[in-house]
Amino acid sequence: MKHLYRQKSKVSFEERCSAYKQKPAIFWFTGLSGSGKSTIADAFEKILFDRGYFVYRLDADDLRQGLNSDLGFSMEDREENIRRAGEVARTLQDAGLIVLATFISPTERSREIARNTARNGLFYEVYVKADLKTCIERDPKGFYKKAHKGEIKDYTGIDSIYNEPQNPDLVIDTDEESVEEGVRKLVLFARESNVISKDIREWIY
After folding, report:
1. Across the chain, which distance is largest between two alpha carbons, in Å?
2. How far is residue 15's CA from residue 35's CA, in Å, rounded to a whole number?
3. pLDDT, tens digit, for every residue of 54-109?
4. CA 29, CA 81: separation in Å to the nearest integer?
């Protein structure tokens, strides 16, 4: 809107980066429910936090209970869910935090919305990959069971699409890799991307 303007802070983004000694990147974890997004992001967050980094995990279920409680699960609502989540992630990023966002984000379009909202060059798409059969067997929240019973409509992987990412920045295959191995890949990737700068030798499992 033409009559709205971003308010400028007396503390610049660059000053926050310098004070926190980190690059406030958004790691956007995408994948089917049960693939391991939250488990890996939780472990990664703990490692970063324990070593003095300012980090926050942004979870889809949390937003669905509050900010996005008015949204359903049509494709239009799913994309609006991601649009809002991307705005929240950007706000946290502007505050200087490393953001770990865990959202199914079923389409390329929804993931592109999130990427375009973030600061340029500070968004990393992490595809947490797992076979649908594996996710159904895990079913940590019991959602697949409910979807098969018809209690949940438009559930991703059952009666709603999931477009596998074509060019993710990082792939963690939880059919083949343990949580520890996945987090190790994340730590190395964050170091190589200059998101973190401390010695990583003691971090490796």
Report:
1. 55
2. 37
3. 999 999 989 999 999 998 888 899 999 999 999 999 999 999 999 999 999 999 99
4. 15
Residue 12 CA: distances (Å) to CA of 34, 95, 96, 177: 39, 9, 10, 40
How many helical (H) and strand (E) elements, i.e. helices and strands, does the chain have?
8, 5
Give residue for tokens 């890996």: 40
Record the pTM.
0.91
Contact of 54 with 197, CB cutoff 8 Å: no
Q: Which of 33, 38, 105, 110 is catalytic?
A: 105
Distance CA 173, CA 101 (A): 18
CA–CA dist 103, 100 (Å, integer): 10
CA pair distance 3, 31, nearest whole angstrom: 39
> Does residue 200 carry a pLDDT above 60?
no
Closest CA to 123 of 153, 173, 86, 164: 86
110 is catalytic: no
User: Which residue's structure tokens are 């990147």?
Assistant: 25
The chain-wide mean pLDDT, for the chain, equals 90
Q: Could you give the C-alpha distances from 78 to 41, 43, 105, 148, in angstroms and in order?
A: 21, 26, 8, 20
Amino acid at 66: G
Residue 136: both structure tokens together: 């159904």
